[in-house]
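Open question from group meeting: does this chain pack into something compact, or does most of it stay loose? Before anyone orders reagents, we agreed to write out a predicted structure and look at it together. Recording both the input and the output here so the notebook holds the full record.
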Amino acid sequence: MVHALTLLFHKVKSQMKPIEAHELLTRLNEGENLNLLDIREEIEYYTYNIGGLNIPLSKLDNRMSQLSYNKTDEVIVICRVGLRSEAARSILMQSGYQQVRNLTGGLLAVQKLKK
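Structure tokens returned:
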């Protein structure tokens, strides 16, 4: 099982370039309307967030219908450090979303740049 997940992770990861914290902050500061999907748990989201839709990774499969994005839209998936968002990115890609990007380093990377 772990081997299969590792292979899937590497296959899907190669399909879309992740987004770095500095690029995300630049785009947000320029007022660009981005499709952000924060997949942390609700308490994490309400403690600190940069906006976007909050659907925890543990509920993503059941709440996929709540996504209002077109499957061809760029969607940026975020979490605390980038691991859960990578799993969510894989789920979205398997569901037909074509431009899903993971925030490298997660919100911790964003917070470091804001200091």
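Observations to bring back to the group:
DSSP finds six helices and four strands in the chain.
Residues 2-114 form a domain with the Oxidized Rhodanese; domain 1 fold (CATH 3.40.250.10).
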